[in-house]
Amino acid sequence: MPEGPEIRRAADRIGKALVGKTVEAGSWPFPSLQQADSLILGHEVLSVTSRAKAMLIRFSSGWTMYSHNQLYGRWTVHLKATDPRSNRSLRAEFLTDKHAVRLWSATDIVLVPTPEENAHPFLARLGPDVLAESVSKSDLLAHLKSKAVHRKKAATLMLDQRSFAGLGNYLRSEILHAAGVHPDDRPCDLDEATLKRWADCIKSVTVQAYEHNGTTVDLKVAEASKARGEPRRMWRHAVFCRNDRPCLNCGELVVRLRYGGRRLDYCPTCQPSSRSI
Ligand SMILES: [Zn+2]
Predict the structure, then answer these.
(1) What was the pLDDT predicted at 276?
(2) Same domain assignment for residues 152 and 87
(3) pLDDT in tens, 247-273
(4) Which residue from 195, 214, 219, 251 lies 20 to 30 Å from 64 (Cα-Cα)?
(5) Based on the domain organization, do 205 and 85 belong to the same domain?
């Protein structure tokens, strides 16, 4: 599933095509979009943004289209004249003077009045969006030290959208590796310096993934690997999906664990358990 950085990049791409433009035509075959002809058609797109893994498109009618792609939804942006040729089911189509923006296959789509968008059940349950500029590293540190979470395992905490909205599987593995935190450690097991490093990495790894197309490994390591002609899957991440291969930091073999059926890859050398020391 795309994580916060991928959805934010998609929002940027869609925003370039739509913001400031009037929706001149389109189709909205999805049942929850029946009011689109009056609430979208002929209205200007004011903004396109994301919150965690949700996309929000706001219109001058005072309404917002909320959508969540889950595993299968997909956005496309084309010039209006381009035939998109997709076997997927079209859910929403926005045509401006130049572009065609389409949403395919998603099933979690709804129109809500813009002032009420935070009351949407998914958004109402979200904690601070890690990518939001208003969320600082010290905010993240304060949350890690809060009573609400200080006895939760790192592996659980990193996917808790009420704590760190927008993180998913690959960011979980990569943040914990960058911070040197064992997935079974809890904030209460760690010293101040480690907690601070963990909070810093939650922000910096996620922001780097947003700015560098999902690359979470140290950028110098990525450049060196690229220069050797290695494929992206070899250098995109430091540990995620590198199980049974050498850790890019220390050479130890990366180990795959599962928590609630979801994979987590980690390096036993870079991420020793604080609980066994
Ligand atoms: Zn390592």
Answers:
(1) 53
(2) no
(3) 988 999 999 999 989 999 999 999 999
(4) 214
(5) no
